[in-house]
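Tip: read the tokens left to right.
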């Protein structure tokens, strides 16, 4: 195994348990290597520090697999996967649920790699090309341990941020092993049915990290008017309608996702005609509803961290305050404004500043009554703050 020298700043980060080596003046002097090679990281005196997976073309040029010597072979990988599976078996409540995360990258000691379960199928995503040469090995071990009907990989294109707001039907998923899944695969979450796609689109149609947040919201929905902004395929909308909301209004810029939303209503025997599905820019629709003096009891905003429409762009930094300010006139006094962000680079303190700016702009008072994040199946090491990305705040107006 070849050695790679890292600088004092990276040494300090590794000593604090952080699993990434970021490209810097030291890594630029490294000899050429191929993605997927294992290297031994050392300080300038040659002291061994960790074993890492090389990904020379990425900003994160190496990801630590172990702070001890090891080989990326079948036995090592099987042990890590068994530990990840065991964590879910011991701590995850899967009552009436068969869609969840099995491997959460750094949180399960497999940095740059995620594995999700969708009913009888598995979905692998590589956030690090260093895993690509080991994909066949990974697939084989997953088959041995879990015997899935099929295993898919969902590709991660470089321009994900620009693409994520579209309903692109391009096939980013490919079958690695086993039998093909239906074009729309039905999965269970909290007793509800959702349709996912393991082949089409950048995402499957169901964000698994919001599962517990949907479950906690459901008891509050009976008799309420609910507005779901950036509704995507309508998982929150379905949860609200199934829990007795009198009217659910879903807003999304994508006609394709809106049709998918309706299909999810149908999959749960919920009449879509009793609810509203609006296609368009969320800010424009908020302005129209304000002009019409509409009112809601609960408003949820869960925008992508970055999206582009024909009329403009939304970014978490700067866009959230305007979104809050535009939403608050539509919310009844005592109503709930639920604000969610998965933007890794915006921490909770900065996110709260955005909510404060929006509330002040609207001349309203907002109080946080509940704060949540990602569920048990999305663990993160205490040494890896980037792993704590999901912010979900339930606020009451007035």
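Filled-in amino acids:
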């Amino acid at each position: 195994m070849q050695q790679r020298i890292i600088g004092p700043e990276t040494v300090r980060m590794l000593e604090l348990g952080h699993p990434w080596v970021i490209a810097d003046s030291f890594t630029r002097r490294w000899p050429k290597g191929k993605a997927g090679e294992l290297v031994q990281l050392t300080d300038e005196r040659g002291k061994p520090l960790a074993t890492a997976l090389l990904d020379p073309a990425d900003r994160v040029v190496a990801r630590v697999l172990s702070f001890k010597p090891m080989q990326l072979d079948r036995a090592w990988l099987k042990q890590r996967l068994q530990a990840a599976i065991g964590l879910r078996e011991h701590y995850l409540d899967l009552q009436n649920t068969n869609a969840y995360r099995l491997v959460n990258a750094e949180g399960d000691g497999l940095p740059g790699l995620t594995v999700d379960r969708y009913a009888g199928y598995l979905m692998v995503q590589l956030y690090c090309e260093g895993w690509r040469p080991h994909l066949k090995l990974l697939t084989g071990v997953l088959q041995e341990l879990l015997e899935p009907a099929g295993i898919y990989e969902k590709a991660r294109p470089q321009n994900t941020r620009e693409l994520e707001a579209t309903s692109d039907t391009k096939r980013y998923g490919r079958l690695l092993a086993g039998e093909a899944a239906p074009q729309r695969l039905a999965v269970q979450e909290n007793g509800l049915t959702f349709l996912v796609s393991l082949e089409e689109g950048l995402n499957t149609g169901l964000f698994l990290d919001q599962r517990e947040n949907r479950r906690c919201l459901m008891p509050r929905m009976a008799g309420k008017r609910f507005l779901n902004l950036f509704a995507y395929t309508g998982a929150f909308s379905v949860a609200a309608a199934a829990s007795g909301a009198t009217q659910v209004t879903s807003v999304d810029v994508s006609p394709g996702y809106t049709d998918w939303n309706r299909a999810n209503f149908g999959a749960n025997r919920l009449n879509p005609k009793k609810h509203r599905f609006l296609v368009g820019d969320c800010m424009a629709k908020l302005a129209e509803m304000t002009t019409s003096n509409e009112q809601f009891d609960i408003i949820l905003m869960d925008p992508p961290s970055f999206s582009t429409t024909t009329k403009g762009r939304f970014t978490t930094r700067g866009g959230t305050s305007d979104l809050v300010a535009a939403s608050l006139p539509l919310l009844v006094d005592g109503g709930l404004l639920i604000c969610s962000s998965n933007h890794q680079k915006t921490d909770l303190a900065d996110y709260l500043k955005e909510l404060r700016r929006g509330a002040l702009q609207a001349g309203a008072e907002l109080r946080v009554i509940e704060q949540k994040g990602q569920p048990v199946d999305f663990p993160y090491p205490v040494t890896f703050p980037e792993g704590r990305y999901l912010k979900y705040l339930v606020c009451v107006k007035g």
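The domain at 2-66 is CATH 2.30.130.10 (Archaeosine Trna-guanine Transglycosylase; Chain: A, domain 4). Residues 306-314 have pLDDT under 50 and may be disordered.
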